[in-house]
Amino acid sequence: MPVTDVEHDIDARTLTITADFAAPVERVWGVYADPRQLERVWGPPGYPAKFVDHDLVPGGRMTYYMTSPEGEKYYSYWTVLEVREPSGFDFKDGFALDETFAPNPEMPEALNSYTFAPTDGGTRATFVGTYATAEDLQKVLDMGVVEGSAQAINQIDDLLAS
């Protein structure tokens, strides 16, 4: 399993997930740069993602929805802040109200920083989410973000091998 460590720090309002992949940084970057590849791994098994917009450039917007096994759709968005191809990118990630992708003010928004660094065996990915408040972080922890994120990230190995 690629996920090697998960830490959350309520005081710092952060969730950090570390994963190791047996592929070069450029290949791991490619998963996030290509919406069709990203759809195959974004979201836990059984909740396929569909990216409607995918503009991985500073100021770009990415919108997507995940569909539950029962057919319910969950809408979200990214606002891309910085891109450091192929070593990572920063973005705001939030829940949307519906297919308009308008932000849901009742749900937390995270500032995410994804970094990809070469290792002897491939790539170490570090995914850091920072929330505005400890309550926001606790809300997503209670929603199962650790389990869902780990399941999603662990799907990347199969994609990299294909």
UniProtKB/TrEMBL annotation:
Pfam family, one: AHSA1
Domain Activator of Hsp90 ATPase homologue 1/2-like C-terminal: 22-160
Stored Gene3D superfamilies: 3.30.530.20
Annotated InterPro entries: ASHA1/2-like_C (IPR013538), START-like_dom_sf (IPR023393)
Family: Belongs to the AHA1 family.
Name the record gives this protein: SRPBCC domain-containing protein
Organism, as annotated: Nocardioides pinisoli
Source species taxonomy: Bacteria, Bacillati, Actinomycetota, Actinomycetes, Propionibacteriales
